[in-house]
Structure formats: C-alpha cells, structure tokens
Amino acid sequence: MTTETPAETHKNDVVQRRSGSTIPIRAVVAIVVIAVAISFVIVPLYDRFVKGAGEHPTVSQEGNVAVSLGNDRYEALEAEVSASDEPPESDASSDASTSNAGTFVPVAITCINVHNETIEMFWKNYNGEEISMGTIAPYASKLFNSYATHIWVWRVASSQEFIKETALGTEGEVTLYSSIETSWHETYEKEHGYPWLNVYPRGPLSKWVPDPVAIGHEDKREVGPAHCTNEGEAGSPDSKVNVTLLTVSTSPKVFVVDNFASELECDHIIAQALASGNLHRSVVKNIGEVSDARTSENTWVAPTESKIIENLFRRGYDLLKLNYSSDSWNVHAEKLQVLRYQVGQEYKPHDDYFAPAEYPNHKAAQAGHNRYATLFLYLSDVLSGGETVFPRANGTFVEEACTAEGALKVKPKKGSAALFFSMLPDGNLDKNCLHGGCPVVEGTKWAANLWFWDERYGD
C-alpha cells in the first residue's frame, strides 16, 4: 500500500472538495489550460471573424429628391462617414443592434447619390458574398450603420456595373465616385487632401483674390468712391478712401477690412431696412425655411434705392477689382442682405456656396456658377457676443467654436468688414470656409452680406 504524505493528502482533499470527486491533478491543469485558451483566443477570434463580420448593417431612407440634373459633367457618388461612440438609432429588430461594440468601432454613414442613375449598395460579408442593402435613387440619400473595416460595394442598379468597393475607416469622411472620371477625382483628392466639390469639368476661378501672405499681413489699399459723410450726398466716382486688409486666416482666406464704411453709411442702411417694413425671420438657404440654426431677421436692399447704398456697392466692387455698372450691377453680385441679431440670436456654422450635390435644382450652381466671395459688413458695434466664427480656420477644426479658446472669431466693429472666399483658385469650393454668427449676448447686432459670384450671377 502506498502511504500519502500530508502534503499530498491536503492537495487531493482540496481537489475533492472543489470538484465533488477525486480528479487527477494533471486533468485539472489540462482543463484550466483549455478554459484559458477558449476565453482568450477562440472567443475573440469568433467575435472578430464570424460573429461581427456576419452582422448586418442597418439602413434607413433619409430623403428622396429624384430630379433631373441636366448636366452630365458631374456624376459622382459621395459617402460621408463619421465615427461615433455609438451607432445612431435604428430598427430595434436589426442584427446590428446586438453587435459587439467592444470589438468593432461603429460608424454612421450618410450615402448621397449624385449619380444620374439609381445606385444599388451591397455589404460584403466574411464569405465575400455581396448582400444587397437596397437602392438609392438619383440625388437621394440613405443613412445606415456599419462598422470600421466592413466592406461596401456600389453598383449601377440597372446594369450591375461596378462603381467602387471600399473598406470603411473611422477617419470621418470617404468620397466615392462613379466610373466616369473616377481617376481624376481620386487623383485630385490624393494630391490636395480634400475632395472636389464643384461641378466637373470647371475652369479655374476667373476673379481676382488677394494674396493672404501670412496671418497678420496688412495690405493697404485705396478704394473708391470715398465715404459719404453727409446724408443724401455720395462721394465723387474718382474719390478714394484708405482701407487695410488684415489677414486673419490663410485657409480659408479671411481678411478684416478696417474703415470700409462710414458711420453715416451704416446708419443709412439700417434706416433703409427699417423703413422697408420687410424685416422678417431669416431662412436657411438649403431648405428655404426658418430654422433654429438661423434666428436673425433680414431684408434685402438694392443699390438703386439710394446713392449712398450705390456708393457702398461701388466701393465693394472696387475692393474686389470688379467693374461696376448701374445698369447691370447684378452681373457679379446679389442685393445687400441686411441682418438684425438681437440677444440670443445666432446663425450656426454654414457655407455660403451652393454645393451642386446638395442643390440639383439650382441652375447656376449646376452650370458651375457660384458665390466665390462674401463681404460681411458690420453696421453696428455689439456690447458682447455676435462674433463671426470660422471653425475650420488655419488647418484645425474647433467644435463649439463660439466658446472655445483659440477659435478664429472676428469681433463686430461698426464700419469694418470681414472678407472671405468660398472658392479656391482652381474653381473648387472651399469647405474650410465654414462660418457662423455667434449668439448675441448683450446689445443688438446689425450687419449686411454682399455676395459676389463667379461667373455671371445675372444670367
């Protein structure tokens, strides 16, 4: 008979108490090793390559604005991808709602079809099979949830012609183009670091744009006619006034123009706006309706309404080296949009240009014409708030830019103006020219937009 040592007896007693029966030590060790392997190797691999890859994304229809573009020069498919901590709300019955969020990074994708044919979108599963996730009509959009590294394929619905395949990332934006001019668009984005947003093909900007040189650079100019200093009197067409263009951003190009208008001119424009009786709630240009994004009031004033206002137009044209004609003043510009912001009112960050992908009905934008410059005139001082903010200025994006330290903000100063450019020299639209009007904290803000176009606005 074999006699157990006290240590062996204790060890076997422990095994018996934990298992309820006598189990050899080697068997216990083997079980532990297998459990560890399952927990730390097999389960994660299963989650990553089988479970996660097999989960279907979710798709929801956002809008359907299928209209005729009337311009085959710009046929593109864009998908804007934004990473988030959680996917947006979707159908609760979707398999994707039970995904392993700890293993996969969820991304919310808005796919905008600006191709002139219906597009079919496919999710490619881990077996390489393309699973149809529905179609997108021309100029419609769809919102869907997916995960980083998931593969999507886009095809022309009628012919199943391949457009593009992409693996999703979390970098914030992916642009997909149709088979027409694909290489040109992709080369452009690769070389410049941002997508082409205007119609294609389109020639370079035909108007003069000042060289910003560097932040803090001052360009002293003489522009005319000179300020009006007496009510009802306009300066001589040959008279000049000294102004200074101070560079505050090189990308986008933003300048502060000091001494652009006289106090009398500012007061005159406000009086004209009030006398018109047409001050009304401002609308957002992309929907043509009032919105919490824009809470100011506005009206429109033409240069034909007074000599003083015409003087201001002439000076703005001269600043941008454009020829002014009283018979065809709307060749390059719109009427002056006069704005009133009271306490709490604001205009959240927006673009001044009309992106062709977002405005399929806009004949001018689809023909390559667009706003290229904004001369934003401050008609009053503001006790607090009311700054013009540029969240993407100088290579950085600042959220909540109105309250953030370091964001580019131009403070309202009566008679001064902010001059900025929504179009790049090559004719592309500048997405970095995103800007907004911060809420007025104290006082009233009066201002005016003078928008300039490239090419002919009046056509």
Automatic annotation (TrEMBL):
Disordered as annotated region, ranges: 80-99
Alphabetical UniProt keywords: Dioxygenase, Iron, Membrane, Metal-binding, Mitochondrion, Oxidoreductase, Transmembrane, Transmembrane helix
GO cellular component entries: endoplasmic reticulum
Name of the protein: Fe2OG dioxygenase domain-containing protein
One of the record's GO molecular function terms: iron ion binding
Coiled coil: none
Lineage: Eukaryota, Sar, Rhizaria, Endomyxa, Phytomyxea
PANTHER family with a match to the protein in the record: PROLYL 4-HYDROXYLASE ALPHA SUBUNIT, TRANSMEMBRANE PROLYL 4-HYDROXYLASE
Spans through the membrane: 27-46
Cofactor names: L-ascorbate
Entry-linked Pfam families: 2OG-FeII_Oxy_3, VHL
Organism, scientific name: Plasmodiophora brassicae (Clubroot disease agent)
